[in-house]
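Dear colleagues,

As part of the handover before I leave the project, I'm documenting each prediction I ran so the next person doesn't have to rerun anything. This entry is a single chain, and its sequence is reproduced below.
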Amino acid sequence: MNNILKRISQVSLTATIVAVVALVGCVKKPITQPDKVILGGLELIEGTTNKYQSGINDMGTFIRVFSQQNWSIELEFPNPDVQNWATLGRDSGKGNGEVWLSYSSNPDDSRDVVIKIYFDKGEKTIYLTQLGLGGHIDDPKGWLEIPETPESLAGSAWKITHYVPDRLGMRNYTVLYDTLKYYPVWVAYPMHSCYDGGSGRTDEWAYNPDVPIAYQPDMSEGMRNGYDRGHMLPSAARYVTKAANEQTFYYTNMTAQRNDLNGGVWEDLEGEIRGWSNYNGSSRDTLYVVTGTVLKRVDIEDTVLGTVNCRGKQIPVPKYYYKALLMKKGNGWKAIGWWFEHMVETSYRELEGSDAVTIRELEARTGINFFANVSQSEQDTFEIMTWNSSDWGFSYYNGSKYD
């Protein structure tokens, strides 16, 4: 009897082992993700696979790591005289991750950094060159359209410049984006006939590749809350190339805007601005524009309107919208501001000179110093300029409204 039981046990054990081996043989091996590293929002230097170029006034970029391993990052600066001009937000991680590489605008010659990423098995190297004024034509005082960043937003707002991808060194626009409240504080950009073209409107709604998705609302199917996706930099102002127009459809260039403003007097003003940038008396010149939102004024007791839900994220409804304009006039300047209260019914009315305010009044209401790269003496002159129809004028009054 004992021999029979022993024999049965041996047979059962053998069958179990065979079954386990067969089961193991059926288990699929996990798919291994190849390690990949890119720099978000920057263009690869033509003909290379790991060499990137950054603009003069860029303030940083994301190192995006795609891996299933542990990894660490080190920076090397080839030029012994130009060290530590870039810093890492963190230097290690596991799996997919993003690391902010921080640096500042570059007033000197172009500079290089070698970014080395070490994995448990293997490593990758990326080369980044930031252009500098020493080898690039630009205004050494800085771009005239860029305002100062309010101190209250220094910890939460990111200043990001987008370049026209297929026009080396040609800036598209700069956005000051609040990553805590998910909205653009202002967007600053130049207007000139060089931005005209035939690309047309792309409607390529997309997340801004330079900002983590976690900090952006999903506007792919509209606001879904009764508001328009209101452009800060209008699509129609960037027809120079398809890529330039696509950048105007980043969600960081959008706000929750009433249709009666977006499709009414605001649209009229955008058309006038395109006209003013293409014709300045007898000559063409650059028009510097800041388009901004205000949640509440800083010069009076004021309250915010609140937020609306945009596919899971609460985004603010601006209480006011404004535009600040600056343009050369002979040896001097002409400047004007525009101010609109968002929740006041505009009934698609026409644009009026009474909507205009001085730049100084805009600064008082917003707490922002506009056109800060112009000398203070010149600012003191143009900041108090009032609406003058001979300087600007409205095109649609004689039936030629811009589309």
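The domain at 36-133 is CATH 2.60.40.10 (Immunoglobulin-like). Helices lie at 2-26, 242-247, 259-278, 359-366, 376-382.

All the best with the project,
I.
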